Amino acid sequence: MKCRHCNTELEHVFVDLINCPPSNSMLKEDQLNEPETYFPLKIFTCHNCFLVQVDEVKNAEEIFDSEYTYFSSFSKSWLEHAKKYVDMMVDRFGFNEDSQVIEIASNDGYLLQYFKEHGVPVLGVDPTANTAAAAKEKGIETIVDFFGSKLAKEKLSDKNIKGDLILGNNVLAHVPDINDFVKGMKIALKDKGVITMEFPHLLRLIEEDQFDTIYHEHFSYLSFTTVKKIFENQGLEMFDVQEIPTHGGSLRIFAKHDYDQSKEISKNVSLLLEKEEKAGIKTLEYYNNFQSRVDKIKYSVWEFLIKAKKEGKKVIGYGAAAKGNTLLNYCGVRGNDLIEFVVDASPHKQNKYLPASHILVKDLDSISEFKPDYVIILPWNLKKEIGAQLNYIKDWGGEFVTFIPDLNIF
Ligand SMILES: [Zn+2]
Q1: What's the gap in Å between 208 CA and the centre of ligand 1?
Q2: Mean per-residue pLDDT for 332-349?
Q3: 3-state DSSP helix/strand/coil % of the chain, to nearest 5
Q4: What is the 192 CA–ligand 1 centroid distance (Å)?
Q5: What gap in Å lies between CA 46 and CA 86, rounded to an integer?
Q6: What is the DSSP string of 196-228?
Q7: pTM of the model
Q8: Judging by beta carbons within 10 Å of its beta carbon (0-12, 13-18, 19+), is residue 45 exposed, middle or buried?
Q9: How many Å lie between the centroid of ligand 1 and the Cα of residue 188?
């Protein structure tokens, strides 16, 4: 396996989570008797460019098929995040009815709808047919395809569509060919256009043992240092960066054409590069010992679940998403003897089963019917929002549990 960015032969294992099905491959009841496909989940660090990456090259179409059930609009805090971003961008760059905003991985139009409210023309690109259909219902035109240099040329630039803003949240880390993806943005960007991308920050993943953010669909684990290099290679320059709290700690990068002199380079750029260098992001030692820290979390999950079982406590999970699946699968939780069921707000996930563990997903009303002693918040990054929303479990003495970075019962 060679590095997806610089083609160096990969030699250094960052962490090996053994194997599991793609995290979004939820099962319907009649699929429970069918065999499931497991893929290795091993992550390497490139010793040349320090891109941390999944070793398995999977056909992306197989994962992001039309059954893919993540609808961004079902998360309230994510919608608020999107709205705040749009207001900030309109304010800072003055986008208006003469501008063109292009969002890559636009999902169900959860974000573009706010640009539309400002009267800014929008266009989405998303490979998933059913979320794109939901976007179209909101009046948001969406190209149903994977973004890359080919799409950028044939479906955008050749048709005189170029972005004053090209944005993508949680997509840069999810593309198998990151070089071609960035090349595509270069092609589809106006001369004075702006690119913003948000993705989980590798520094936070490592420092807070966030191993459950690792899954097959998440190909790259990115530091600012490495992303800057990947963009520079395609003639794009970083002019600002923000550290934001989403997904347990993300970066929002701002890029422009390298020849565009109209924008000042913020000091945030050099400050974050220094911070990463000081942490050791350009040394292999920094990536060592992650496996043993992950295993420590695995043992604490086991201890908690077995103790709760012995004490006759009722345990359920909240959040049928990738994070939970990585955690449950790496910890080898199978069947519903330790975790009765998982609840999720999205009707697209309810009455389906989690891959590998085969735990049933129910609706939120099931919580007050079942009255669990413990609700494990699998997307721990949303524990404040979820804890407030489900505060009624305190009525019967219920408690919340998170495992990362340490066991926390509250
Ligand atoms: Zn590399």
Answers
A1: 24
A2: 94
A3: 40, 20, 40
A4: 30
A5: 35
A6: EEEEEBHHHHHHTT-GGG--TT--EEB-HHHHH
A7: 0.92
A8: buried
A9: 25
- Per residue in 289-322, pLDDT tens? 999 999 999 999 999 999 999 999 999 999 998 8
Single out the residue of 73, 42, 36, 71 nearest to residue 56, CA to CA. Answer: 42
| Burial label, 244 (beta-carbon count in 10 A; 0-12, 13-18, 19+) | middle
Sheet with 39-45, strands from edge to edge, namely 12-20, 39-45, 52-54, 220-221
Cβ–Cβ < 8 Å for 225, 207? no
List the one residue out of 108, 137, 330, 246 whose CA is nearest residue 124: 108
Taking a 5 Å cut-off on Cβ, the residues next to ion ligand 1 are 3, 5-6, 8, 46, 48-49, 51
Q: Which residue has the tokens 């400050």?
A: 271
Strands 342-343 and 189-200: unpaired
37-94 tens-digit pLDDT: 888 899 999 999 999 999 865 555 565 554 555 666 667 888 999 999 999 999 999 9
Nearest one of 152, 153, 165, 155 to 121, comparing CA atoms: 165
Helix/strand/coil for 173: helix
Under a CB-based contact definition with an 8 Å cutoff, are residues 379 and 70 in contact?
no
